[in-house]
Fold this protein.
Amino acid sequence: MKTHVTPLALAGLLILSVSCKRELESMEASSDLASADTTSVAPDLPPHQFIRTADIRFRVKDVANATEKIEGTVRRFGGFVTHTHLRSDVAEKKTASISLDSVVETTRYTVENTLTLRVPNTALDTVLTAIGRQAVFLDTREIDAQDASLDLIAQRLTQRRNENAGQRIEKAIDQKRAKLNDAVAAESDNTARQQAADEAYISEMSLRDRVAFSTVTLAIYQKESLKTEVLPNFENAASLRPPFGVRLLESLRSGWFLLEGFVFFVLTAWPVWVLVAFIALLTRKRLIRKLN
């Protein structure tokens, strides 16, 4: 049995083939356009370098103990403490008399400490987690990240421009045809450009330092405490005078000590008394002879 293909069928197949080919070309063009758009929107960018800062406030059980542990954690991860301010804020202080010569002082106070920490950027999250273990109540925790990659590039380009300009000025100064006034002006301009280059270099180093080490501002405090202390009552000086019986016993004791001291002195100086007795005996014998 033979199959006959009509011209109409051939025309349909040809149209279908052309349509599929155009659709495929359209899809490829769309893909290439999307790729080109993506490249134009996100060109080659420098790697992100973030300046990260954290501001945290929380309550601890004991401020002094928590401060010691926090500082140890920071040092263990390669960081350091740039500021610490430990203080006691007194809310109220009262005194009450408990006897003629004593008063009790009651003080309500809160202990706080404010610290500034520099932590390696790669260890910031770990350090914050370790520090957070000291908290019994978290007040605030704020973390910011500022992209400094473009700022670093800007500082580097500024340095390059100033260095290139300085080199050109130095070449002009070295030329023998340059006049003295022109050379002086060029030297002054070169000095100003070098100063600008140095400032740009210092700014870049400062940015790199802030990128490498994150800054953490930490405020810790503890619950309000109460302290009582017994103190002498200096305002009532008469009440500090001992009673009569006590003074009488003290006088008798002092007199006894004086008598003991005299006896010990007499016993200690016995050679003197022997010499005095010998001289007295000789004197007595001479007087007796004269009278006889």
In short: The radius of gyration is 48 Å. The chain is about 55% helix and 25% strand. The CA atoms of residues 122 and 281 lie 104 Å apart. Confidence is low (pLDDT under 50) at residues 1-5, 33-41.
